[in-house]
Amino acid sequence: MPLIISDVFQTYNGLLENFIVQKSTFADNESAENYKKNILTNFDFIYNDQDIKKALIVGKIQAGKTLFYTGFIARFFDQLDGVCIVLAGTKTNLHEQTFIRLSQDLSSLGISIDDTLQNFERNATNRQVYVVLKHNKYLKQLYAYLEYSSVQNILIIDDESDQASLNNYNYSNLKKGEDKVSITHAELINVIYQSKRTKYIQITATPQAHVLADLSDVLRPDIMLALPAHQNYFGNKEFFGDSAISQIIDGGSDKLSSEILRFFIKYFYNACRMIEDAISFKNISCFVHSNYLNENNDSVFIVLKEQLVRLRKIILENIEFRFIDFNTESEIGYLRNNKNTFLSIFENFIVQRVYGTHDKSLNWDSFFHSYRYFCLIGGNKLERGFTIEGLITTYFTRISKGNPNSDTFEQRCRFYGNRRHLLPYITVFVTSRIYESLLEYYNNEKHIFNVLESNLSGVKNFQEIRKGLSNVSIEPTRKSVISHPLYHLLEDKWHFLYFNEENLTQWDYVIRNKGIGERHDSSGDADLNTHYIYNISGSILMEVLKNKKINKGSKDYFYTQILTRFIGDISKVKVIALSDFKIRHRNYSRLLGTLKIPNAVHSSRNSSASYKGDSYITTPEQSFSIQVGKYCDHDDNNNLVVLAFKIHTND
Fold first, then answer.
1. Dihedral angle at the C-alpha atoms of 181, 184, 187, 189, nearest 10 degrees?
2. Which candidate, 625, 269, 231, places its Cα nearest to that of 424?
3. What is the pLDDT of residues 353-387, one digit of tens each?
4. What is the pLDDT of residues 386-412, one digit of tens each?
5. Using an 8 Å Cβ cutoff, are 378 and 446 in contact?
6. Helix, strand or coil for residue 88?
7. What's the CATH code, domain 5-32+44-231+455-481?
8. Domain ranges (residues) in the chain
């Protein structure tokens, strides 16, 4: 039975309102009211619609997504009896950070927070939140508990939902006609669909993989909603709106020492300014993300330590230094004039490695309380979801050799977040290639949020959003998880399948049973430019495609897989008979058993008439167009059937 909040529940929001009152994040009453309104609106959208089981909430990088779903959990417990499961990413540092935040924010409201499933009983307590790693082991354990539980309602929050949750075999299945499922994806589906009373909330800043999900994808969101950024947010808009924030560097190993020195000069300069300007802060930090290999990070770590020693001598001992540029000279002068402030930071400054086993026993809450000034160096552990407190200076040079995946790439931008008030003190060192890739992503991001913000009740058809995902220097996401065929098969472009002698008997049967056709409106005057539309049995077309001998993994097999997905269960498919199935003479040749057919299709032109050509003959009323033409070689009289198809807009 669907949950109709407006009919079933009162307007009680005690937990949510108490959470807002005790939270110091909100700058004023208006901010708090806007936050509350956003929680209530999204909650009602999701819980009032019986067709919504999976909802995707899209916010920008570090723009308050954890704050959002914390309030959403409070609203859930205000209205329903049940438990909440928070899937806190795939890394222990994010899991730990999420557990600490939820404990601090919700425990005082009488909501129990647990960082393990060990205490999950078959009769689980209401108002209980379990924060677990997104791993098949824990998902399998959770399913076993829920199977025998009497819990009435289950809320699943999937933080960083485009990571690990999706099927890594999507593209392979599409290409090879298989049905493989990655294990975490399979276990997650079991948990989500274990009960009709489960709602699954996907949270991410990078929705590309979700947007490129096919309708048949089990985890494709039923609705997508935008999370507005708070007033103090610093993101792509501010980064590209202020040229002083970004510093373009070379990023090469031969320049590492000099660039790290510049990086530290900028950090200590801005840190000193913050102190001198009486800016309130808990931490002032910097971050180096240059590699993912431990041995390479060890080399960078050595350089960091060396350049810190060098900087100390430059500032305190006034040793000679060849100034890199005017700004650096001015910054060194400022630090020399404020030696006491510099020294108070320097003597309490540490460099913490966050890779390998260097952070294994680290408690991040204790770390941020113990060290006001620090530099973190690392790779994969310091990407998705993890917040680096007080970050003002970043050295960011890590990028793929080929086109990077934009979602992974953007998630490395840990310098974004709740720090707009610190813009005068923020500097990001990046290579020109990273800068250009970020700019391309920013254009994609603007398009996504323009669509979402113009549809305040949510977006269910992702077609318009997909149009804004460019593919110039960045890929939208990792190819393996994309299940939507239009990413792999360009929209509104013709693709061809060739059928020779072994398939002609089947095509003859199709043609004999084609029924009565209708002349296509865009036909030309000449006989061979006169085309007809026939309603052909979908099952017969599927049989023809199925019987075509194709090697698995080949381009033709891929085309066949996609086309059969679009034909699906359609009883009658509109098929365009080029020249009304009359023979069209073309020259084609054979090479190593492969048909080479130059200009076999779409070559008809009539410059003296209005006919534009075969490629303009389509069936736009159908989500795809199919043309079938019969061809004969001028030289050896070999017959051939060519099926041309293209996919139109389709979600």
1. -70
2. 269
3. 999 999 988 999 899 999 999 999 998 888 877 88
4. 889 999 999 999 988 888 888 888 888
5. no
6. strand
7. 3.40.50.300
8. 5-32+44-231+455-481, 252-396, 489-647
